């Protein structure tokens, strides 16, 4: 049997059970959610695993083999595990260590570097059942709510830390805005090795996947919301990848405050700072910026087009971004209204599937260094 058919059969075999497990509870289950942290840890930690990976750097003469270390958690008795993409992306060998000390080889089902979510498969045990975690609804989280993180920081296995939800809908600044996704901010201590581990509410349900830290700060960590993680894993199990459109532009919003700073023609909208080579945006003639400007802590690249609207939806109001995002689907045709050098013009193009770009891969992977939560 070819490797392609083997992988296809594997996905078919686990899809029914795994997808049934990937559901989000809209409300807390009818149980006491006030159990002690110790009891909560004892109940949920057996489903948290230690993940090690081996990456080979063919361009080095010495230290060619680098080891990655991270966390993950089992979500289905078939052996489906969720972790971060940056823990396993590009690895030659991936191994999973269970709570009871058993080490198992893991097969990568799929990894998405943009959302930083990956799915692994380990063999189903011949006897007994694997412990699993269930998902809570990240949409129901509130700032100040208690959460705990379980993982393997710096290889210290099955470590639990406690904190609160510090903020919601945080968008990391270097993410392309039209492809950005909101993250959960928490002050529960997260360190290298926690990557891919669960962020749990007091009911013991997964509300996030720990993914990033701010290296220059203290106790500022981020987690992928459970709603997003579930949607990503569904696509990874079904298709082996996340299908997303290739818009081809990077930039930031121009608001009224920014307009007042410059004595040059500006309108409110999405300032195009860079256009990806070979993208449909480049083929449509959209232009990026040429003039780097810094205002306080904010950096811009001026001189590019300003996207005023997409399919008639104004980008002058940040609240319209979710509506615009609904238009950004593979195969959809975009009618883009631009402001360029004091004049308005329109271009149209159809969105193809976005290929993997070099910038999608975290710097830690590009440098073949030991994996850790990306520092923002």
Question: Could you explain the architecture of this structure?
Answer:
Helix 1 (3-21) packs antiparallel against helix 4. Residues 361-376 have low confidence and may be disordered. The protein has 8 helices and 21 strands. The chain has helices at residues 3-21, 37-44, 85-88, 226-239, 256-261, 280-283, 321-327, 363-366; strands at residues 48-56, 65-76, 80-83, 93-97, 103-105, 107-112, 117-121, 146-151, 159-170, 183-186, 198-201, 206-213, 221-225, 249-254, 269-275, 291-295, 298-302, 306-310, 313-314, 333-340, 343-350. It has a 7-stranded antiparallel beta sheet. A 6-stranded antiparallel barrel has the order 8-9-10-13-12-11. Strands 14, 15, 18, 19, 20 and 21 form a 6-stranded antiparallel beta sheet that branches. It has 376 residues and is an alpha+beta fold. The chain has 2 domains: 3-242 and 362-366, Beta Barrel (Thrombin, subunit H), CATH 2.40.10.120; 249-350, Pdz3 Domain, CATH 2.30.42.
Question: Gist?
Answer:
By secondary structure, the protein is α+β, with helices and mostly antiparallel strands. Helices cover 18% and strands 34% of the residues. The protein has 2 domains: 3-242 and 362-366, Thrombin, subunit H; 249-350, PDZ domain (Pdz3 Domain).
């Amino acid at each position: 049997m070819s490797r392609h058919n083997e992988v296809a059969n594997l996905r078919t075999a686990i899809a029914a059970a795994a997808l049934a497990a990937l559901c989000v509870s809209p409300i807390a289950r009818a149980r006491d959610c006030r159990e002690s942290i110790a009891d909560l840890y004892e109940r949920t930690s057996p489903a948290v695993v230690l993940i090690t990976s081996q990456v080979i750097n063919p361009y080095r003469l010495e230290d060619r083999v680098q080891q990655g270390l991270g966390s993950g958690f089992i979500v289905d008795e078939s052996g489906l595990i969720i972790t971060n993409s940056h823990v396993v992306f590009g690895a030659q060998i991936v191994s999973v260590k269970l709570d009871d000390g058993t080490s198992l080889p893991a097969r990568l089902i799929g990894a998405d570097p943009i959302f930083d979510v990956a799915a692994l498969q380990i063999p189903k045990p011949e006897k007994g059942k694997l412990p699993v975690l269930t998902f809570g609804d990240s949409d129901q989280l509130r700032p100040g709510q208690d959460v705990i993180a379980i993982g393997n920081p710096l290889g210290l296995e099955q470590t639990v830390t406690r904190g609160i939800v510090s903020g919601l809908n945080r968008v990391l600044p270097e993410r392309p805005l039209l492809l950005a996704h909101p993250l959960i901010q928490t002050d529960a201590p997260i360190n290298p090795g926690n990557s891919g581990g669960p962020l749990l509410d007091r009911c013991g349900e997964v509300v996030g996947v720990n993914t990033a830290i701010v290296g220059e700060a203290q106790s500022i960590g981020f987690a992928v919301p459970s709603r997003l993680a579930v949607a990503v894993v569904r696509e990874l199990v079904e298709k082996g990848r996340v299908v997303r459109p290739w818009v081809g532009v990077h930039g930031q919003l121009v608001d009224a405050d920014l307009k007042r700073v410059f004595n040059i023609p500006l309108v409110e909208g999405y300032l195009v700072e860079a256009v990806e080579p070979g993208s449909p945006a480049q083929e449509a003639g959209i232009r990026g910026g040429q003039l780097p400007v810094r205002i306080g802590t904010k950096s811009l690249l001026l001189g590019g087009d300003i996207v005023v609207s997409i399919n008639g939806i104004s980008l002058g109001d940040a609240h319209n971004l979710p509506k615009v995002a609904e238009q950004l689907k593979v195969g959809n045709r975009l009618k883009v209204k631009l402001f360029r050098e004091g004049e308005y013009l329109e271009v149209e193009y159809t969105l193809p599937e976005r290929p993997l770009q070099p910038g999608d891969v975290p710097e830690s992977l590009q440098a073949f260094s030991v994996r850790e939560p990306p520092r923002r």
